[in-house]
């Protein structure tokens, strides 16, 4: 059978104030075109369909249309919730999804866990089973009272153990006598895997990394989401992150955006190839003085600009006049004065006004009125509290 594995669409993403809806329309249209050309039996979307738990109507319309278009290619479609998604909201769409022939699993059922086990048969008669695991937060997995009694290391191990038991329970059918292609999809972090650069750190590192040994050796392929970099993971079975089909932030500008096409059978090891997705606008970081930046010619890219000039009022505007597609303008860190340990120690016990004054002094910001505006804002916030 053939599988198209994709994840981390992050529809609704705003990059430094720039709406990326038009990019997402083109990217998902290309994913659908790849599905039409490759004719997969199954499409797996491994979480983070949206960038926020409260997506706009526009984002919801785009995701539902993309899933419907993938289903119309003739493939079965399975999508799970990620850490950016609102699992309950995705589950609320299940009546629509069921009517459209789409398997949507936003969160964990309170009753029968077998709802997370999906089965099917390809047109050629090949059977498959898929364990579909939405993102599971540590706070939900480990009761609050227990978390207070556990050290951080104990909580992390408890979370990993729970995931291992959950996967083992749901994959019990893999050992059955009836032959089928055994599949797992999950939205989680595997120990040792490389982040893409734009993930939500609290859900990537802090207590959420689990060892690859949680996956059974009799699984034929594990389709992962959550990390935005395309990569295989050393595991008891073929395990892979498809990565995001577009770079969601400047930390991902070196990633190669793609979807994974997987050919696998009960008698044949999974063979994976990447099909590039090229529809998104390129992200690039450039640095230099104003004179050097004037020579930059990247009209088709969103830019992060690191300016090698002393901080001064109006510098951002000067850069954006030279490079209108600059979404982020910062002083190059090499131009900023180093902070000594002694100066950091002086922070203790000092007022916000004093600390902000030090911040302005360290950057030689002499713009009139900034200190006064901070004082006014601080007074207003303090009085409201």
From TrEMBL:
Region (Disordered): 335-361
Keyword Hydrolase recorded: yes
Pfam family, one: Metallophos
One annotated GO biological process: DNA replication
Domain Nuclease SbcCD subunit D C-terminal span(s) in chain numbering: 283-362
Family matches, as CDD domains: MPP_Mre11_N
Biased amino acid composition, Basic and acidic residues: 344-361
Keywords: DNA recombination, DNA replication, Endonuclease, Exonuclease, Hydrolase, Nuclease
InterPro entries named among the record's database cross-references: Calcineurin-like_PHP (IPR004843), DNA_Repair-Maintenance_Comp (IPR050535), Metallo-depent_PP-like (IPR029052), Mre11_N (IPR041796), SbcD (IPR004593), SbcD_C (IPR026843)
GO molecular function: 3'-5' exonuclease activity; endonuclease activity
Residues of the Calcineurin-like phosphoesterase domain: 1-229
This protein's record includes keyword Chloroplast: no
Top-level taxon in the UniProt lineage: Bacteria
Protein family per UniProt: Belongs to the SbcD family.
Role according to the record: SbcCD cleaves DNA hairpin structures. These structures can inhibit DNA replication and are intermediates in certain DNA recombination reactions. The complex acts as a 3'->5' double strand exonuclease that can open hairpins. It also has a 5' single-strand endonuclease activity.
Quaternary structure and partners: Heterodimer of SbcC and SbcD.
NCBIfam families reported in the protein's UniProt record: sbcd
Name used for this protein in its record: Nuclease SbcCD subunit D
Species assigned in the record: Actinoplanes derwentensis
